[in-house]
Amino acid sequence: MSEIHHIPVETLRQQVTGIFRNAGMTAANAAAVADVITDAERDSCKSHGIYRIEGCLRVIAAGRASPDAIPRVLEGDTAIIEVEAKGGFSNPAFEAARATLAARARKLGLAALVIRDCLHFSALWHDVEVLAGEGLAALSMCPSYAFVAPAGGTKPLLGTNPMAFGWPRPKDHPYVYDFATSMVARGEIELHRQAGKPIPEGWAIDAEGHATTDPEAALAGSMLTFGGHKGSAISTMIELLSGAMLGEIMSKEALEATGGKAVLPRHGALILAFSPEVFARRSGRDPLAEGERLLQAFNLQGARLPSQRRFAARALSLEKGVPLTTAEVDRLAHFREHGLRGLET
Amino acid sequence: MSEIHHIPVETLRQQVTGIFRNAGMTAANAAAVADVITDAERDSCKSHGIYRIEGCLRVIAAGRASPDAIPRVLEGDTAIIEVEAKGGFSNPAFEAARATLAARARKLGLAALVIRDCLHFSALWHDVEVLAGEGLAALSMCPSYAFVAPAGGTKPLLGTNPMAFGWPRPKDHPYVYDFATSMVARGEIELHRQAGKPIPEGWAIDAEGHATTDPEAALAGSMLTFGGHKGSAISTMIELLSGAMLGEIMSKEALEATGGKAVLPRHGALILAFSPEVFARRSGRDPLAEGERLLQAFNLQGARLPSQRRFAARALSLEKGVPLTTAEVDRLAHFREHGLRGLET
Hints:
With 345 residues, chain A is an alpha+beta fold. Chain A is built from 13 helices and eleven strands. In chain A, the strands form three sheets. Chain A has a seven-stranded mixed sheet with strand order 2-3-4-10-5-6-7. A two-stranded antiparallel ribbon of chain A has the order 1-11. A two-stranded antiparallel sheet of chain A has the order 8-9. The longest helix of chain A has 19 residues, at 90-108. The model of chain A has no long low-confidence stretch (mean pLDDT 95). Chains A, B: It comes from Pseudoroseicyclus aestuarii.
């Protein structure tokens, strides 16, 4: 039985930051990437937590991510703020541009952040939660790898294309959702394959486009979107708005660019920020108070809000420390002392 | 057997316009409402076609819609264009503001249209299709009546909250989706009730919040969203962005305002317009050509695009006339000659 160690959140953050500094990242880059990884681990969002450190180190070691990229913010004079990530991770690019984005949204009512040429591995909830914390509503989306077939199609054309939304709550954690538009994560199908178990109907089709419950056939075929043709339409919108519209690559090119593997390609990301204060100005109503009426009614009838489980995990981590297994603690120590050295390639 | 009459599209448009002129609408108001109704009938989108004429006449007769409202466009100097519908239908308000919205989106890259205090009965695809025809991507949403429970909830709090998206295609009809975020339209459940047939699982819950296949219990309980907790999250976002954020009423208030009936309340609507040309400017890529690569790949593998059936019906209607039954033709003639007079109240 593995022992559980409770590491204070800020201790973990310093350790992760140190690992990335040792890998050649600038202080700003290391801090931004360590923040999203530490915050995810803190929130028990394990798929985007410290598990991601190794992947980040490997793309740096392979020369595919620039650890010392200095993001360049192009403020312009429109409702669009652009930031060139220059082949670095998306997170420092977002950090470099977020104050400009927030100021522009407060001035114009809404503004868009376009992140160009970035490596994107992190959960989208982090950015929209940050913006919601500044009193802004935010909608974030990006393409990924084309593992998903459109409704009625037979071959992968769409990514698992995540979408996240944040809404500010004055006295509470913001309302935040963040999900892939695929029915499930690809890793779920892989887990079924490893366990030798069939997958439920509706998750995937085989290489000929027929419904399948065989995880092998699913992995060789296409995943499906959530919500049938409606989910497929939303995923298509994400390809068009955060791929085609930005002039950045779409999920099909992303997969081709990496030789068919789900390693991080360089693509774009789109974040829309809205100022409820500016939008509601002429109405005489308080938009956040209106939002509270709805969200509190959810809770009154026992409906859980999308990030409630994550916020509960956060509270526990902040009180008791982040729970890590001995294997995880050892892995962190290895990365701190040796980086990737001594690990399988 | 009912005979089918083929009425030229423009003849139908003139007839519908005349009906609304007779009901006291200004020329601009009658034209805008007649356009969305005629275009829906032309596209075989029967639920939003001439069937809607009677409802429009009734809300005017009841004094709940202003037939002679003159929409007021507030251009401002932000990315938000506001238009006060002044208790008229949403369509003339959109028409009054669309050129300003398009110009602002071309100038700033993106802009939002806020329609205030309108009666909204029409399909959202019409507005996003118009904007896509002008080379803009558009995302439209509005609240409706609270007939839908959130995921994990027991009582209605959300509307059937539609969302529509349009993307311009230089040599083809735009890419357009438009759907309710409820699993099905309320009318579908009503049809099952009338036929004495059970509804599929997942459509609704009863008044105690338990899953039900009984249409009576469903109508007395709550509908569910499409796509489980993901669809519920999107529906919630629509309440927050197009209700709370605008300082306009949300679906729960809308239903309360009409005494629990699905008659048109006065609420707001939100339409975002994006200029792909401005967004892609620095990329050196043609965003619409990129979009074509994706959408043509859909067609190559036989995946139907969301509005393809509608565009096919349109082509037939433009060639042969809009197919109407004798009963429909007679009803139109009655409205033309007598308005609501002689009909049941």
